[in-house]
Specification:
The complex is a heterotrimer of chains A (555), B (280) and C (319).
Chain A: H1 2-8, H2 13-33, E1 49-54, H3 72-75, E2 98-104, E3 109-114, H4 129-137, E4 155-162, E5 165-170, H5 177-180, H6 191-197, H7 200-205, E6 213-219, E7 223-228, E8 241-246, H8 250-259, E9 264-267, H9 272-277, E10 281-296, H10 306-314, H11 318-326, E11 331-332, H12 349-352, H13 361-375, E12 381-388, H14 391-405, E13 409-416, H15 419-426, E14 433-439, H16 443-450, H17 458-461, H18 472-489, H19 494-510, E15 515-528, E16 532-533, E17 552-553
Parallel strand pairs in A: 1-8, 1-9, 12-13, 12-14
Antiparallel strand pairs in A: 2-3, 3-5, 4-5, 6-7, 7-8, 9-15, 10-14, 10-15, 11-15, 16-17
Chain B: H1 2-31, H2 33-36, H3 68-104, H4 106-121, H5 124-135, H6 139-166, H7 169-176, H8 181-218, H9 229-238, H10 248-272
Helix pairs in contact in B: 1-3, 1-10, 3-4, 3-6, 3-8, 4-6, 5-6, 6-8, 8-9, 8-10, 9-10
Chain C: H1 2-29, H2 34-39, H3 49-58, H4 65-78, H5 91-126, H6 131-145, H7 148-162, H8 179-213, H9 216-223, H10 228-257, H11 260-265, H12 271-281, H13 284-312
Chain lengths: 555, 280, 319
């Protein structure tokens, strides 16, 4: 290359100087503009409509407001975050709105460098620092009510440095900040749009973001319609339209995928074996993104006794649970909420396979009898639970019911519609067990889950004066967990924070604190090969979900 | 003409024999469930999940390894109790409303009949669903809800009967003799209303069983782990690929029992109300 | 006759008011607090009490119940049906969209029921006690007893999954724009919903015809040497159709109310499914307005049936 330049361009010293000056200027401009080029779209546009099928209604089209972890499958169709997570679970600048960031002021200031030329949907102009600052500062705003305020207690505010640079100022050091920002809180929306439509209520319905497709219609219970955003910064979106349908019936969702009416579908355990046998369907899985099990109120007797908690865990045969409820498509957990294979996780085989938590109904029964004797309770001991109506969750509860009956515990449960209602029931302070699961993308998810600094768990927050009290031993556990979590949040280096989080996980598992992560969730996606492009490589990101922008219609 | 008429009656008789047999068996099975069911319907045996029909599990096992046959047997209890109990409540409440409305007339009649009209205008399943969502899915609540949904037709039939009976000679005579209204209602009016109600009751029990199955199918019926036929169908279809046999038995059972109640109602109509013979 | 109809119509009004009161009360009793749902719960589960109080006030939930009812009724009549708590979108257009579909489905199923039930019932009556009669009667009987959701699911498994001839469900076709697709999507739901009606009409037609066949004037017509077909069509049918049409008209109301299960099984965008989903999600306003609309719809179609019946039956014309 150099040779060519010198022979063709550098015929004379002036010409050579001019050439190098121009070349240098261009190079500098190019470097300053986009040192990390956008990841190009995987294929040329083929138009048509992509049909995606999902099992549940999203809680809100505005990702920032969305409650369920599964809502990611919806809102990431059109919303994007400042710092995106890649397939390996790490920061992926090629798909992020901020192509780089620096950590300044000993960890109390993060400087994000924004891409230039990113256009909002609907012709609302270029994304600048003003939009990013406004989007981030929503975290602590009261209207329309932010879910992230307590999780981002280290975050003070975002300020604009110049049109393409944003500083995030922290109250205290937070090694986890970037991990927190992989997700909804750092979705960038158009401030102009908010002001145009007059505020939260309207904005929530049709938020304007930077992603490849723009939401144009939402028929509750039926589908959402998104149309392509031609000025998408990574290149032309590959389909003209995306329709995300809600198909709650498992059988019909699979049937739709098999006939090709649906290109990509979320698969549940019951559908996986049959989908895998179908030559037209490619099934992708991603393990360890979450857990299934239950949460409980450790302050509500008789759960305030660790022996009782242990007994309830030891009564559950997780192999049988996997077979019956998940048709052997999940994994029994060997750790706490992160799998042992991940750097965030601990190896707790000694606890799960050892005498402490191993499946042993007769030992469990003895423990229950001990507790009943000591606390003067009559058997069978009665426990209340709350379960979500979704068939697999309901079956889980029935499984628990049968398993616990064997050890002298009578478990009855209420059935409710969704996570928000489960929480509401728990807050009435009379329910012991909440069948639930969680998505564990990064350590901050576990942190959030174990948040028990007085604003966290149900017992501490709401039910202290309504019949819940921690036993002295449990109070010590709570205090120690609080201490460790606080210390972790003071760390500057993620590695140091991780070590402390591992200690928290171990302590939590030993004391069966807040959660019993019995199963590790494996997410399954089905792709209809004849009509869909993008199925060849595993499309699932580090948060366990797909990005609709990766797929196209085959012609 | 005569031959075909007799053949038809015979077929009716055969059908009502069939109905009687099915109903008898259902009631017997429901009552003797604990002795008839080969396995515990509630205790789960997860290692036998989705076991195909075999010597041990005649109709197969469901997702939690519970014997399908035993669950069907216990499910009969639920269906019959809800069906009969619900219709019983409907009859009790409906007759009370119908008799008082028909007898006293005036504003009371107007008010009651408007309320009945309103109640019957609500689509049955949706009304039941909303009420169960409010009160929770216990057996008692569902029986009451089914009863409420069925009250209007009883009230209407009773009221129209009372209206026509009120002017009849024997009633006028009894009134003239100074009998108290309650006595008249109980001893003279109610017994004469029973015939058409009993006919319709059988058909309503069939409807109540379908209603309960519908509620269970939508996920708001009797709470688990109590086996219900509708709930069993709901779960069976999720695993229709792995265990298609599970979808057949509950559907067939619901079908047969509902059919039997329908036939029984027809037969009762032929016997009790000759005026209505042949119009259905 | 007109006075009778007007009286019937006026009688509907107090019932309508009672229905609205019932719907309002029903929803107020549902467990769950809409103000809470709207106020939004943060990740740690706390709600801002000031925001909560403000939302409660905005929704009027801090007023006495009767005041709430009055205010609600006034708004409903003016078409201000409010916004769904879940989606934040206007309830009125959402309900209308789905009502549009439910009426389509009910009408189609009704026509199907009529087209299937009456001819089959006629054949059954004319060829009394023949194998055809037995077959038709058997079909009629099953139509009443078979649970809709079972039939629907079985049809999906057979026709959509195994054979692949028909779609699994869903609906996005327009009758005029894409008739082929419309037929494909409507076929199974119509069949499931319409068989019940067809069964009832079959038996009704058969019984009515048989009744009429026994009448002396039929004997007279036959002995005059008239062709059997003419006997059936001009004499028998006309007189037997009255009860059949009456029942068919009344059944339309039942169909409108009974689409819930079919819509759920086939994932159709109908009002019944919308209400069920809203009940399960505790979306108050949608449940309220949906139930109200559906119930009013049923009442209106029953009234229409009344009108038809009154026109057809000369005997009650001069009431």
């Amino acid at each position: 290359m150099q040779g060519t330049f010198s022979t063709t361009m550098c015929r004379g010293p002036l010409r050579c100087l001019a050439f190098f000056l121009v070349w240098g200027a261009l190079a500098t401009l190019a470097l300053a503009a986009d040192p990390v080029p956008p990841r190009p779209m995987p294929h040329a546009p083929t138009g048509g409509t992509l049909n995606i099928a999902y099992l549940r209604e999203p809680s809100s089209p505005d990702g920032f407001q969305a409650v369920g972890s599964f809502d990611r499958m919806y809102f990431f169709t059109g919303n994007e975050v400042l710092v995106a997570v890649g397939k390996d679970g790490r920061y992926d600048p090629a798909e992020s709105l901020a192509y780089a960031y620096e950590v300044l002021d000993a960890g109390k200031r993060y400087r994000f460098h924004l891409r230039q030329g990113v256009q909002f949907q609907g012709g609302l102009g270029e994304m600048t620092a003003a939009d990013v600052v406004w989007s981030l500062n929503r975290i602590h705003q009261q209207a329309p009510g932010s879910r992230w305020s307590s999780l981002f207690r280290a975050f003070d505010r975002a300020v604009e440095v110049d049109p393409y640079t944003v500083d995030v100022l922290l109250n205290e050091v937070d090694a986890n900040l970037i991990l927190r920002m992989f997700d909804r809180p750092s979705i960038v929306h158009s401030r102009k749009h908010w002001e145009e439509v007059g505020g939260a209520a309207q904005h929530k319905i049709r938020p304007i973001a930077t992603g490849p497709y723009q939401l144009v219609d939402w028929q509750v219970g039926i589908d959402q319609k998104w149309v392509k955003h031609p000025q998408y910064w990574r290149g032309a979106p590959m389909a003209d339209q995306v329709v995300i349908k809600v198909i709650t019936e498992t059988r019909t969702r699979l049937a739709a995928l098999q006939t090709g009416e649906i290109q990509v579908a979320w698969l549940q355990a019951e559908q996986v074996p049959e989908a895998q046998k179908d030559p037209n369907i490619k099934v992708w899985s991603y393990g360890g993104v979450g857990w299934d099990g239950w949460a409980w109120a450790a302050g509500l007797p008789p759960l305030d006794d660790l022996r009782m908690r242990r007994a309830l865990v030891k009564a559950v045969d997780r192999g049988a649970l996997n077979k019956a409820i998940y048709l052997n498509t999940m994994q029994a957990s060997k750790a706490h909420t992160f799998p042992s294979e991940l750097p965030h996780g601990i190896d707790a085989k000694d606890l799960w396979d050892g005498e402490w938590l191993k499946f042993d109904p007769s030992a469990a029964k003895k423990l229950v009898q001990e507790v009943a004797r000591d606390k003067k309770l009559k058997t069978p001991i009665e426990l209340q639970g709350v379960c979500e109506q979704r068939p697999d969750r309901q079956l889980f509860c029935e499984f628990l019911q049968a398993a616990w009956e064997e050890i002298g515990v009578k478990f009855t449960f209420k059935i409710v519609a969704n996570a928000a209602e489960r929480l509401a029931v728990m807050e009435q302070c009379q329910t012991h067990v909440n069948q639930t699961g969680g998505l564990m993308v990064s350590p901050h998810d576990m942190e959030g889950a174990l948040l028990s600094t007085g604003t966290g768990n149900v017992t501490a927050r709401v039910c202290q004066d309504k019949g819940h009290t921690f036993s002295p031993a449990d109070a010590k556990v709570q205090a120690e967990i609080d201490r460790l979590l606080n210390e972790a949040s003071q760390q500057m280096e993620l590695e140091q924070a991780l070590n402390l989080y591992k200690k928290v996980q171990r302590l939590a598992l030993e004391n069966l604190w807040q959660y019993v992560p019995a199963m590790l969730r494996v997410n399954y996606i089905g792709c209809h090969i004849p009509t869909t492009g993008g199925c060849d490589t595993n499309p699932i990101r580090g948060d366990g979900h797909i990005r609709v922008g990766d797929f196209w219609r085959k012609r | 003409m005569e031959l075909t008429h007799t053949l038809r009656s015979l077929m009716r008789v055969r059908l009502s024999k069939f109905a009687a047999v099915v109903l008898g068996m259902t009631i017997l099975v429901a009552v003797l469930a604990p002795w008839l069911a080969p396995h515990d319907p509630i205790k789960s045996k997860p290692w036998d999940s989705l076991h195909p029909p075999s010597g041990q599990y005649w109709l197969g096992a469901d997702r939690l390894g519970r014997d399908q046959l035993s669950r069907l047997i216990y499910g009969a209890r639920v269906s019959l109790v809800i069906g009969i109990g619900g219709v019983g409540i409907a009859i009790g409440l409906g007759m009370f409303i119908g008799v008082t409305a028909g007898w006293y007339g005036g504003m009371w009649d107007e008010l009651l009949m408007r309320v009945m009209d309103g109640l019957s205008a609500f689509p049955g399943l949706l009304l039941a669903l909303s009420l169960v969502a409010i009160t929770g899915g216990t057996m008692v609540n569902i029986i009451v809800v089914v009863g409420i949904v069925g009250t209007p037709w009883v009230a209407r039939i009773t009221r129209s009967q009372v209206l026509s009976l009120r002017e009849r000679e024997f009633i006028v005579a009894v009134r003239g003799l100074g009998a108290r209204p309650t006595r008249i209602m109980l001893r003279h009016l109610l017994p004469n209303c029973l015939a058409p109600i009993i006919v319709q009751a059988s058909l309503s029990i069939a409807a109540a069983i379908l209603l309960e199955a519908g509620l269970s199918f939508l996920g708001v019926g009797v709470k688990p782990p109590t086996p219900t036929w509708g709930g069993m169908l709901r779960h069976a279809f999720e695993t229709v690929a792995q265990a298609p046999w599970l979808t057949v038995s509950p559907g067939v059972v619901i079908f047969l029992v509902v059919l039997a109640f329908n036939f029984f109602g027809d037969a009762l109509r032929d016997v009790l109300d000759p005026k209505l013979r042949g119009t259905r | 006759m007109q006075r009778y109809l007007v009286r019937r119509f006026l009688n509907m009004i107090p019932t309508l008011l009672l229905v609205s009161l019932g719907v309002f009360a029903l929803v107020r009793w549902l467990p769950s607090d809409p103000a809470r749902l709207l106020a939004g719960v943060d990740e740690s589960g706390a709600i801002d009490p000031v925001l909560y109080a403000k939302i409660k006030h905005d929704l009027g939930l801090d007023q006495p119940v009767l005041v709430q009812y009055g205010a609600w009724l006034a708004k409903v009549v003016r078409g201000h049906w409010g916004k769904s708590y879940l989606s934040g979108m206007e309830v009125f257009p959402q309900i209308m969209y789905r009502l549009h579909f439910t009426v389509q489905l009910a009408l189609t199923a009704w026509v199907f029921g009529l087209l299937l039930g009456i001819p089959l019932g006629t054949v059954s009556a004319v060829r009394r006690n023949s194998p055809i009669d037995i077959a038709v009667t058997a079909f009629a009987i099953s139509g009443i007893a078979i649970p809709h959701f079972w039939l629907g699911m079985m049809l999906i498994v057979v026709f959509a999954v195994w054979l692949g001839w028909l779609p699994y469900g869903g609906f996005d076709a327009s009758l005029f724009a894409a008739p082929g697709l419309w037929i494909k999507q409507m076929l199974l739901p119509t069949f499931v919903l319409g068989t019940g009606l067809a069964a009832i009409l079959m038996r009704q037609t058969r019984a009515a015809l048989l009744e009429v066949f026994r009448e002396p004037y039929i004997l007279t017509a036959r002995s005059k040497g008239l062709q059997e077909k003419r006997v059936i069509w001009t004499h028998a049918m006309k007189n037997s159709l009255l009860p059949v049409v009456t029942i068919a008209s009344l059944q339309f109301g039942t169909l409108i109310g009974g689409t819930v299960v079919t819509e759920t099984v086939f994932t159709l965008p109908g009002l019944g499914k919308f209400i069920v989903d809203a009940v399960l999600r505790r979306d108050y306003l949608v449940v309220q307005m949906g139930l109200l609309v559906l119930t009013v719809g049923v009442m209106l179609s029953n009234f229409a049936a009344d009108v038809i019946y009154t026109y057809l039956d000369p005997r009650i014309r001069y009431d």
